[in-house]
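>> received
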Amino acid sequence: MKKVGILLIGLSLAGCEVGDRDNKRALATLLGMGAGGTLGWFMGGDGFTNKFLWSAMLAAGGAAGGYYLAERLLPPDREKLDSTAFRALNDAETGQELTWGEEGKGAWGTFKPVRDFTGKDGRSCRAYIATINVDGESGTIEEAACQLQDGGWQTVST
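>> returned
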């Protein structure tokens, strides 16, 4: 099953920009839970029970992801990740891997577009693989994003 990845990152990072550390952690957890629950609802298929179970599972994962990111990624790391993701989605060739941070020093990782496609609504989309490494722990995210009219990117399920 695909990870909620970049959606969680974006929402939980937004939560990291307000208040003291405890408030940031709480808001990032709630935003991650909301993002996971929403994604689970749309991935859940037919029937209320399926949608509810998917929402509950992904909400729990989203909450954990939001908490983890708020706890682990410092603002400079988040800025590096965000700018690298935006640069890769806009400018990198398919298969070209961009790195952010410095390996072995704090948080670091990679972002690689792996496939271009047209979304259901006609938008330009890119599937990607991202890695995040923090304090010797690593994770991989495989997801896709479609470009918005304002030039930004929105994570979509594939």
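>> Residues 1-21 have pLDDT under 50 and may be disordered.
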